[in-house]
Design a protein that fits this description.
By secondary structure, the chain is an alpha/beta fold. The chain contains 6 helices and 12 strands.
């Protein structure tokens, strides 16, 4: 029997909760899930009581209170998260709702076809995309498709310029795309640093356009690795505006 003590723990006001799921993504321990359209505490032992989820709730439905509860169990959390990863690997699509009603903010993991995209029937190349979303600003750092991934960071003009993007770059990789000219580079650094801290990545490939503004992508990833004190195999590929590969090199991480 689990020991109980008076401690801080999350309290969810189900009347206020609209089931947006933002708190689910904010909780690194997986203590909250959306059940029957409402956020619910899965188990007291998974909640550390620190309240990382509170600031993500647009309905003010989450609060930290003190009450008698089972003690927080880090080992139980680790086992629970590992079992959830294994379960997600057997499902064709796993969805994690976010705060916005926009479909682009809902996290999906797709089952990939075993055959390479170039071998799709009827001469049509199949999509090699394994997940959604792909925009850097929209991908949550704890998205299940990031762990143990070969990460592909690409300028958002690259898929338009390079005709074989799916077959040569996206196949077998997890993609995040963006534009450092129109987005905030510092936010990018912070986002990637958190990703590198939270997930074990096998490699990172940065594919940028030859234009100066796009070259910032590599510096962003390097700075994020430094901030996270992560050492991950890193490769840079530069694509011309006419769709040719101008440079491909290994970068010291």
């Amino acid at each position: 029997m689990k020991m109980k003590a008076i401690r801080k723990i999350i309290q969810i006001d189900e009347e206020r909760c609209d089931g947006c799921g933002q708190c689910v993504l904010a909780c690194a321990e997986g203590a909250i899930e959306i059940i029957d359209g409402k956020a619910k505490l899965v188990s007291e032992v998974y909640c550390d009581g620190l309240g990382a989820c509170i600031g993500e709730c647009p309905q003010d439905a989450l609060h930290i209170i003190e009450r008698e509860a089972e003690e927080f169990d880090p080992e139980a959390v680790e086992a629970f998260l590992e079992s959830r990863k294994q379960d997600s690997g057997t499902s064709p699509v796993v969805s994690f709702p976010q705060a916005s009603g926009c479909p682009s903010t809902q996290v999906h993991v797709f089952s990939r076809p075993d055959a390479p995209a170039a071998q799709a029937p009827q001469g049509k190349a199949a999509s090699a995309l394994s997940h959604w979303p792909v925009q850097i600003r929209l991908v949550p750092p704890n998205a299940p498709f990031l762990n143990n991934a070969h990460l592909l960071v690409a300028g958002d003009c690259v898929p338009v310029a390079y005709p074989s993007f799916h077959q040569e770059f996206l196949q077998g990789r997890t993609a995040m795309i963006g534009c450092p000219k129109f987005d905030n580079p510092k936010e990018y650094v912070d986002k990637f640093a958190e990703i590198f801290e939270r997930n074990r990545l096998q490699s990172v490939t940065v594919v940028s356009m030859e234009v100066p503004c796009c070259s910032a992508l590599l510096n962003i990833v390097v700075k994020a690795m430094e901030k996270a004190q992560a050492r991950i195999p890193l490769e840079e590929v530069v694509v011309s505006t006419r769709g040719d590969i101008l440079e491909r090199r290994t970068v010291a991480a």
